[in-house]
Amino acid sequence: MFLWQYLTPVLLVILQTCKARKCATFTDLNFGHAFFGTTLKIRLLLYTRESIDCGTLMSHTNLSAHPHFNLSNPTTFIIHGYRPTGSPPIWVKKLTQLLLHRKDMNVILVDWNHGAANLNYLKSVENTKKAAANLTAFIKNMEEHGASLSSIHMIGVSLGAHISGFVGTNLNGTIGRITALDPAGPQFKGNPPNERLDPTDAQFVDVLHTDIDALGFREPLGHIDFYANGGTDQPGCPKTIFSGGAYFKCDHQRSVLLYIESVNRTCSSTAYPCSSYKDFLDGDCVSCDQFGAAGCPVFGYDVVRWKDILVRLGQTKAYFSTTAKTPFCMTNYLLDVMVWNKDERSGYITAKLHYNGTEAVASINHKASKFREYTETKMLAQVGKNIQSVEKMSLKFSNGNTCSPKYKLRVLRIRLTNLEHEQRPLCRYDLLLKDNEEVTFRPIPCEESNF
């Protein structure tokens, strides 16, 4: 009896600890649920640095029930999109963990799978405003308990982007930041600002577009709108319907993978403000003077560094290209070619950059470039490998037509400029490029000239 007097409190503490450590998980539904339709239910799963692998199912009203929910810390909400099969998003765990590695914060995964899992997409769209009303009430409760709305960041994917916007509207644009990853297009295209995401929904709204010709939204929605690979046809995604479901969702889902890479700092993708992707690829948008010493904005989690100037500018469209798989980032060079052919030549350039046994290839083939006597032809050369210093360079010119005569490009000067690092441009003078014959040379620092 004497021993039980001491053991009982210890056992109760252990029991309570075990209960407290029971991890809440994302709702796992199946195609059957989606087929018959689901009714909206919101579950909020809290993760912190103390419970990075273990979610806590939160009360919507009793915040004091979660002592490790530190309202003095920033809070990031992750809001998924449409779930036609009912399965949990495979990316949420990784994104949650990476965010907590970056900063001491609260991460709240908004599980609205009951409501998003429905073969009737229109029903899921209807549920977005209801989900937003639920989250709005929760955030107001947070504010009443001392949380700062400016420290709230909402990351919304597809339909989740518009849910974030509706929450922002309900709170009069006072939340700190909304990140929208390929906001849903169907049922939102053409809507007025109060019926979709828009820049007034938060103090700072950054948007990524990856599928504007199908599931995504084409027009700008934020203070800065990034268009990866022009916003369509992501590299590595299937090109035909015979690839099955991946054909429909790969471009749309690429937005999440690109954002995760930015949080993880795997590499950085510099984006260039431009009116169109075509102008960007033509090398017409390589200046970022409007951003001053900060330079061109970098896509992703850290673009908040450019917040003040982007808000002043209003709405900025920025473009960048990626590779087909991680690491997705590319390094951008400007290639200037001046020829002394008397007759105009047109064709394509392939550039190879060599450094310490590594070769990086830039195929400039989105259109045929035109080369005129004593006129600079500018081209954007993009490579998927980080070349620290160009030791050698290879060039190949092709007119792209096997039936036409073989042309020669008589080059007066070639200049290669790294757009992302402060390096002196490299040049080569007096070079002959024969059709489809590769020429390799060592470039030298460019001389000041009147070219």
Automatic annotation (TrEMBL):
Protein name per Swiss-Prot or TrEMBL: Lipase, member Ia
Organism lineage: Eukaryota, Metazoa, Chordata, Craniata, Vertebrata
Entry membrane topology: Peripheral membrane protein
One GO term of the biological process aspect: phosphatidic acid biosynthetic process
Family, per entry: Belongs to the AB hydrolase superfamily. Lipase family.
Ranges that cross the membrane: none
Residue ranges occupied by any Lipase domain in the UniProt entry: 39-328
Sorted UniProt keywords: Calcium, Cell membrane, Disulfide bond, Glycoprotein, Hydrolase, Lipid degradation, Lipid metabolism, Membrane, Metal-binding, Secreted, Signal
Family annotation (SUPFAM superfamilies): alpha/beta-Hydrolases
Pfam entry (one): Lipase
Keyword Secreted belongs to the record: yes
Signal peptide positions on this chain: 1-20
Organism, as annotated: Mastacembelus armatus
Active site (UniProt): 158, 182, 252
